[in-house]
Design a protein that fits this description.
single chain; 303 residues; mainly alpha; ADP-ribosylglycohydrolase fold; 17 helices; 61% helix
Length: 303
């Protein structure tokens, strides 16, 4: 399978999917009763939707792929820190503030990423939220998907769970693009098990294997009780649910994102992860939704 010049086009599609999901999910950070009513009524806000740090960091990955054709960790760290400095009011978590501020001030990213959480490194969901463009760019070589996803995660996430979350999301993105192109047939439980087969041993891998046994017809409360919804902000509490959404709603961006946001929890990040993955299979992104969202290429981060 020769991608040629299509690699960047696929990576941009994933970036747009991340941004759409991020923007959509962000509009649901309202009291739960209001969010639940809007979800039940399928009510979207007809006003500008703005993206968060999820998209800002995904832009960084896309631009590094565009410039180097691989994940250059030193340059990626620099881009992350520079874009953070442009606007740090984009929803970055406390750990991300610390890491990116330290990198911007000259600390080596290896040291900055390794020293958080008493030297354990971050197991957060932040590496997964930005990684879909890597899965798209290297979709014809899953070994490269895995190695570059790991490299992209390591810049900020030193813990194996944060790294495994990124690897899982990147592989899922690659498989969905291959499915769209007719090179992969798996779906549902098979899709989820094919992802776990590629992952290093971790709690994230174990929970994705559990996701494979959760039926499509399950109620969202049950799914969240088993897989999580990102409230803990960790990869293992976020990525398995996102992959479950993608496994059963990959053919419709709207259905995938409505399902994702119905879990509540870390709404923008869950929707960003799901949007990045399913955008690589769906025929088109919803035009009405696109008309409300802040576009990555129109932002000051895309340079």
């Amino acid at each position: 399978m020769a991608f040629g010049d299509d690699r960047l086009r696929y990576a941009k599609r994933a970036l747009d999917g991340i941004a759409l999901g991020d923007c959509f999910g962000q509009t649901f950070f309202v009291p739960d009763e209001i969010a639940c009513k809007r979800i039940r009524d399928r009510e979207i806000l007809e006003e500008p939707w703005y993206f968060t740090d999820d998209t800002v960091m995904a832009i960084g990955i896309y631009r590094i792929l565009e410039k180097y054709g691989n994940i250059n960790q030193d340059e990626l760290a620099k881009v992350f820190a520079e874009n953070y400095a442009l606007d740090w009011h984009r929803g970055y978590g406390g750990t991300a503030h610390s890491i990116l501020r330290n990198i911007k001030e000259g600390k080596d990213w290896r040291e900055a990423a390794a020293e958080v959480f008493d030297g354990m490194g971050s197991m957060g969901n932040g590496a997964a939220m930005r990684v879909a463009p890597i899965g798209a760019y290297f979709a014809d070589d899953l070994d490269k998907v895995l190695s570059h996803a790991r490299a992209s995660a390591e810049v900020t996430h030193g813990h194996r769970e944060g790294i495994a979350g990124a690897m899982a999301t990147a592989v899922a993105s690659a498989l969905l693009l291959n499915k769209k192109l007719g090179h992969y047939l798996g779906e549902g439980e098979t899709f989820l098990r094919d992802i776990t087969d590629k992952l290093p041993e971790s709690d994230t891998k174990y929970k994705i294997s559990i996701a494979a046994s959760v039926p499509k017809e399950s109620g969202i409360d049950f799914v969240v009780s088993v897989l999580g919804n990102g409230m803990m902000l960790t990869a293992q509490d976020t990525v398995p649910f996102c992959l479950w959404c993608a496994a059963y709603h990959y053919d419709s961006v709207e259905e995938a994102l409505w399902t994702a946001v119905s879990a509540l929890g870390d709404r923008d990040t869950i929707c960003a992860i799901v949007g990045g993955m399913v955008s690589l299979y769906a025929d088109k992104l919803p035009q009405q939704w696109l008309s409300y969202m802040e576009r990555p290429e129109d932002s000051r981060f895309f340079r």
